[in-house]
Structures are given as C-alpha cells and as structure tokens.
Specification:
- The structure is a homodimer.
- Chain A is mainly alpha-helical and about 475 residues long.
- Chain A has 23 helices and five strands.
- Chain A folds into three domains: about 1-150, MgtE N-terminal domain-like (MgtE N-terminal fold, Alpha Horseshoe), CATH 1.25.60.10; about 160-265, CBS-domain (Roll); about 290-460, Orthogonal Bundle (Tetracycline Repressor, domain 2), CATH 1.10.357.
- Helix content of chain A is about 65%, strand content about 5%.
- In chain A, the strands form two sheets. Chain A has a three-stranded mixed sheet. A two-stranded antiparallel sheet of chain A has the order 4-5.
- In chain A, helix 18 (about 290-320) runs parallel beside helix 23 (about 440-460).
- Chain A starts with a helix and ends with a helix.
- At the A-B interface, helix 1, helix 2, helix 4, helix 13 and helix 14 of A face helix 1, helix 2, helix 4, helix 13 and helix 14 of B.
- Chains A, B: GO terms for molecular function: magnesium ion transmembrane transporter activity; metal ion binding.
- Chains A, B: It comes from Maricaulis salignorans.
C-alpha cells in the first residue's frame, strides 16, 4: 500500500506526501494528544522508515517523547537510523535499553554505530550489554575511530572470496551463507591468503559470467583502498570521481576490515555541502530541530567577529570625520562602494570555495584563476564605476565626487576579486577549511578598502 | 599500474596525484608544445578516464586543441564523458566526426547523450549519421527531453525479466545475453506482460537465492516509478531519501523505458548543491574554465541589482542629511548596524535555503521555524546591542547615541532573522528558486532598516 502511494507521488507532483502533508501531520498530532496508540500505528505503520522519520521530525520534542512512550514499537532500528541526530537523541531517552538493543541488532554495523553514538555513556553501556558479542565488538571498534572518518562510516558486513575460487564457488558459497550476508552489497571483494583485497567484481558481472570462470579472470584491481582514518570528504570525492558503488576499507596491515557504500557517501556529500554553505554564511551548524538557544549559540560567534570588523571599518570612517563634516554627500554615498565590493568579493569567494571542494582549483591552475578573478573584478569595476559616477553626477551635480566614487569603485572591485580567491587559497595553504571564516575576511577587506579609497580620495581631491 | 598509484594515494595522503600534481601537468604541457605524441600517450595512457579528464581541464584551450589534433586516440568515449562541458566543447571541435561516432558508440545512452548535446546542429548530424540506428534513436529520444529531467539522464540499457520467471531463468538469460547487458546494473526489474515494472530485485539478492525461487517471491514493489519529465533534483532527493541505487523510468503508459542509477544521481546532487551555493552568492553559473568575459557576464547582473539596492539605501541615508551634518558620529557608526543585520540575515537565509533543499522546511513546521528565527534574531540583537552600546559609550562618551544604536541593532537583527526565513519561503510559494535573488532581498531589507532605524531614532532622540 505504501508503495502505491509513493508511485502516485511522482505521477501527481505537488500532491500530498505523508512527510510534508500538513493535514497528515495534524492528524498524527491529534492522535498523539488523544494518546490513541491504535490510530498512531494505523497512520505510521504503512510508511517507509525514511518517511516515518521525516514525519517525526515535524513534531515537537514533547510529542516525540509521548510517541516513544506510547508506541515504542514504531521505533524500529531502521526508523532510528533514518532520524536526524537531534530527534534521535530526544526519542532514545524514552526508549528502554532492551528495546534499543533489539532495534540496533537489526542494523548493519555502520547504522548501529550511528544510533549508539547519540547515547550518553551510561545508557550506551546498558544498551551494549544487551546486544550480542559480535555486534557489540563491531560497534565499539567503529566508535574508536574519529567522527567523519571512513572507520566510523564503514560497515563490517561485506562479501569476500579467496582468489583461487571460480564464480561457481562464490555463488554456491553465497547461497549457503545467505543469512550472514549484508542486507545489500554491490561488489564482491577478492582477497589473497593474507585477506588483502586484490580485486573486486560488481555483482552484476558475477551473474552474467559462466560458472567455471575464475574470479581472477574477471576481477579488476580495487580502484581505491581506504584507510579507516581517511576523512569522509576525501572518500566521498573519490566515490564521485570514479563512480564507485562500494570500496574496501583495509587496516594498517592491508587486510580487508570493512566496506563503504555509495548510499552512505550520498549522505556524506550532502552533509559536506551543507557544511560549506552554512560556513560561508557564518553558521557553525544548523538543524531545523534546533532550539532558539542552540541557534543563538551557533550564530553569535560569527556575528561577534563581524562586530569587530564592522567597528574596524567605522574606525576607518572616523579617520575622515573632517571630510564628512564638510561634505555630507560622502556619508550618503560611502556605503555603496563598500556594499558593491562585498558582493563582488562574495561572488569570487563562492566560486573559489566550490572549485576547491571539487578539487578543480589546484596548484597547477591557481595562477590562471587568480588572474581571471582580478580581471573580472576590474572589468566589473569599470562597468559599475561608469554607472555610479553617472548617478552621482545627476544626483549631486558634482563631477569631482563622481570621479572619486568611480575610481574607488574600480579599486574596491579589483581588490574584491583578488581577495575572494587569495583568502580561501591562503586558508587551504594554512591547513584550514576555506569555507570557514573566509567571508568575514573578504568583507573586512572590501569594507576597509571601500571606505578608505572613497573617503581618502575625496579628502585629497575635494579638500 | 595506475591502480597501484591510486592505492598509494590514500596511503600517502598529501602526496602527488596526477590530476593535481603541478609537475605532472608541467611535463604534459612541455610534451604538448614539443608535439611529442609518444610522450603524451605514455603520460596519459596509464590514467583512469576521470583522471585524464581532470588533467585536460588544467590545460589552456589552445593546448587542449593541439592535444585533440595530435593524439585523438586519447579521447575515448569515457574520457569525453568525464570532461566538464566547457572543455568537452573545445576538444570536440578538433575531433573528426567518425572518431566521435566511434567514441560515442562505446558509451551507455545517458553518457552518449551528454557528449552529443555539446555539438552544434551540423556536427551533431554528421556524428549521428555514423552511429548505429539503435544508438542514434536512443540519443535522439533522450535529447527530446528537457535538460535536467529524468528523461535526459536515464539510460536505455537495463535488465528486465517477466514476472513468471524463476531466478534460474533470469540468471541463465543474463549469461546468454551477456554482451547486451549494460556495463553496470544494480537491480533487476520484474515486468508484467504489458512491460510495466511490478517489482525490483537487487542483484545481490539474486545471487544468494536458490535457482527455483520465483522472481515474484523475492521482489519488492518498485519504491519509486519515475516519469521522464520529472526534474532531476526531485529524483535525486528520492534516491537519497530511500537509499536507492537504481530506479525505473516509465512512459505515460507505465511501460519501462529506462533506468536511473545512483552514480548519475551523485553528480546531480553535487550540481544542485553548487547551483544553490553560487545562487546565494549572486553568481549565475561558474566553471573554472570560464574566460574573463564569461565570468563578467555571469556576475554583472547581480551586481547591477545590488547597485540599485545600494542606491536605495543611500537614498534612505540622504533623508537624514541634516542629522549627519550636525552629528558626524552617526556617519561613522551607521554601517555597523547595517552590516550586522546583513550578516544575521544571511545566516537565517542559508539555514532556510538548505532546509528547503532537503525538504525539511514544510508547511507543517514553517510557523515554528519562523518563530525560532525571529527569537534567535532578537536575542542576538539584545546581545550585540549591549556590546555596541558599550563600545559607543566608551568611544563617543554619549549615552544617547549609545542607546540609539542599541535599539537600532535589536530592531535590525530581529527583522534580519524574520526576512531571512520569510523571503525564501515567499519565493518558494511564488514558484521561484529560493536560493536565487533572496540574498539581495535580505540585504536590501537589512540595509534599509538598519539605516532607517538608526538615523531615524537618532533624529528623534538627538535633534
């Protein structure tokens, strides 16, 4: 039934979908405040785990808690794994450790780890005590790796075959051990006697080849071998570049210890993109479920930095109090130069940060791109200098002010283009994330240069 | 050999990789200017198609052209498919139609379409005339769909089996027709007698099941059925949400006509993220290979809009010329209020645009999020009002100006939070892309309100 509903979705675009349908959510809210467990189950049971998670995220923390107490059976391992971390944290507080242990046991080790890591130490111990030794060990060793590394993301369940087997051997073995196989896998890893991966075969290739063919005859050497310490962003980049669907993770001795899949990498790509975009806008992290207090905490630090740079820019303006007192038009016009510089700098910056993230901006082509940004800034400077000088002339009937603002515009837009590329490149060279902090640096440059060029020139020319 | 090189990469992080190694690129550049075809082949042949494409993108258009004339054999179908559109356009101008036809014939129909669409009408006709009828038909019917739709992205090669077959039937059939199978596939689609998809089976499940099991016994109903007209962003969202690796595309009669794979969706996700991030920064599109002229053209339009809004803000300032003439401190301080508002607004905006892209911000929870943004803005307003008032008091020794700037800060940061969420939501409701133009609207609001609140209050209180 649920499947038919989703089919229809893509046909009747714009029609109600469970997770975004206010009426559905309202009905569920009513059922929760009526404590009507049967109706809740009736509403949620037909949905896919991902949809249940999405609907739950629309509820308040109080409603989520009631739901967890009233109908814990809704919170299967899959549903827990699909929820965003904030919601999961709330819900898991209300679920019994034995329920959580059973839910986690359903999951592959990577998803199990993701769920367990949200628990505080006491509850984590209680839950882990109730799951099997093998599962516990897998989760514990994943948790030993840093967040955002391949080791944390990998699953321990994979399919490997020795390099002397034929396809027939491999298929017979899989049929016999069907219960131990991971839920889904896309490649068979071929290993040598030291359990080191020497090849991989897409499962579709296994199906189309003859039974008596040796695995070594159709395998390809692994495109990448991932170390558990490797940063997830690096791995996601390689998955994208080489169109991988899975990749082996090996320990320091080169032995196969886990597998990464494209499904996980899709989430990593989204997360890393989100991080970059928020970082550029000066937000540390953001979750729609965040409270006001959390939002304030994630945004105030960059506003504080901006306050300092804004005061710095004001200090520059204060240097020219004499000019401003005599010619009030300068005060009226000065924000234009700074604002245009800020925008042009942000444009260069976004292009550069994006190119760095996609590994397109490298040492081999950075000089060419730096020149292009400078040239683009200068040409735009000339264009907008002509426009603003004309406007100024018409407005204030003063060709000297018009000339001054035009020259300041060219200077500021050239420097905006240059700082928009040099600042992120400098951050990379310093080993920092180019998306974080670069906006603030760029707008500081464009504000300071904008005010300095305009008011400084005005002082020289007009006074 | 190339594979060992890539293995080493992930072990010796930071070591040279062909596509980002300036020395390698320099050596290739030298070989190109020496017209040394053998050395060029020796350098490039061991590389993966994706790496060759990345290296080529580091060269100037002139060098790319020489390479295409000198060693056309380097430009296999895979290499062409991996290149970015700008580079591909340059290179293909130098390749003979018969070479292009042979290269395209190697590719699955989705990649072939991507390559062909870069050709102008005359050359496209010349190339299509040289490829087989089946391939031509596939490419032509893909091109008939709009850019950025499922129809354009889908491949015509997929594997389907009738719903009365057993697993044994399906496997035997695949072995017999191994040559006609797509390069890679992750799901077997089960179709009814009308060729409508009724189920799908991950290929790993086929391997582990017994031969005499019926397909209908282990298939799952298709999670989604995609129409060719569906926007690629919508499809990518569903792939991510349901962790899909492939999905069937059906025509208006519900018949299976193509397949989308997760490898393509990874690229779509990256592209859509890039679009959003650049749009927020006011860049229409960007490619590292863009010329200065193209960069100017993609950035000038939003700078022009910004010029108008900056002049509007100046117009607001001009209303208070009298106050500015008498109290020059106002001119010094006024950019602080506007700048803080701009930053706070951009923060709200980035969070909102991101949440809309991830379908987390919906009609069911938008009221809660609007309140949160208003509250966050107001609380930050109070915090930074206290700070800036203190700074102003110390600087100008004037408690009235200190009070005025504090109140203006609270007003502007509250409104910044509100406009950061209401403007993108309004754009969505109007059917527009919330990332495009919203930055400009938000900073216009924060500039105008910032200057108006500060200078207006100052006029009332101080004069």
């Amino acid at each position: 039934m649920s499947d038919t509903a989703f089919e229809d979705d893509l046909y009747r675009k714009g029609s109600a979908r469970a997770d975004t349908d206010p009426e559905f959510v309202a009905e569920l809210r009513q059922a929760i405040s009526d404590l009507d467990a049967d109706l809740i189950r009736q509403l949620l049971a037909p949905l896919h785990a991902a949809d249940i998670a999405d609907v739950l995220e629309q509820l308040s923390a109080g409603q989520q808690g009631i739901l967890a107490e009233l109908t814990p059976d809704i919170f299967s391992g899959d549903v827990l794994a699909e929820m965003d971390p904030g919601t999961r944290e709330v819900v898991m507080d209300y679920l019994h450790p034995s329920h959580l242990a059973a839910a986690i046991a359903e999951l592959d080790s990577d998803d199990a780890t993701e769920v367990v890591e949200e628990l505080n130490a006491v509850r984590r111990a209680a839950v882990l005590a109730e799951i099997s030794d093998i599962n516990r060990e897998a989760v514990e060793s994943s948790l030993a790796f840093d967040d955002e590394t391949a080791g944390r993301l990998m699953q321990r369940e994979f399919v490997a075959a020795p390099d002397f087997w034929t396809i027939g051997h491999a298929i017979d073995h899989m049929r016999e051990s069907a219960d131990d196989l991971p839920d889904k896998f896309h490649d068979l890893f071929v290993v040598d006697t030291g359990f080191r991966p020497v090849g991989e075969i897409p499962v579709c290739r296994l199906l189309s080849a003859q039974r008596d063919v040796h695995l070594t005859d159709i395998m390809e050497p692994p495109r990448i071998l991932v170390k558990p310490e490797t940063d997830q962003e690096e791995v996601a980049y390689l998955f994208q570049k080489y169109h991988l669907v899975s990749a082996p993770v090996v320990d320091s001795a080169g032995r196969l210890t886990g597998m990464l899949t494209v499904e996980d990498m899709v989430d990593v790509i989204q997360d890393e993109n989100k991080e970059d975009m928020l970082a550029l806008a000066g937000v540390n992290e953001a979750d729609l479920a965040d409270t006001v207090l959390r939002s304030v905490r994630s945004r105030a630090p960059w506003l504080l930095v901006n306050l300092f740079t804004a005061i710095l820019a004001s200090g520059v303006i204060a240097l020219f109090e004499g000019a401003l007192e005599r010619i009030v038009a300068l005060a009226v016009l000065m924000p234009i130069v700074a604002s245009m510089g800020g925008n042009a700098g942000t444009q260069s910056l976004a292009v550069a940060v994006r190119a760095i993230a996609e590994r397109d901006l490298t040492a081999a082509n950075s000089m060419r791109v730096i020149w292009r940004e400078l040239a683009t800034g200068t040409i735009n400077g000339v264009i907008f200098a002509a426009l603003i000088s004309t406007v100024t002339l018409l407005w204030f009937q003063d060709w000297e002010i018009a000339a001054v603002i035009g020259i300041a515009m060219i200077v500021n837009l050239s420097l905006a283009g240059l700082s928009g590329i040099l600042i992120p490149l400098g951050l990379v060279r310093a080993g920092a994330d180019p998306a974080v902090a670069s906006s603030v640096f760029v707008t500081t440059v464009t504000d300071v240069v904008g005010f300095l060029a305009f008011l400084g020139l005005a002082t020289i020319v007009l006074l």
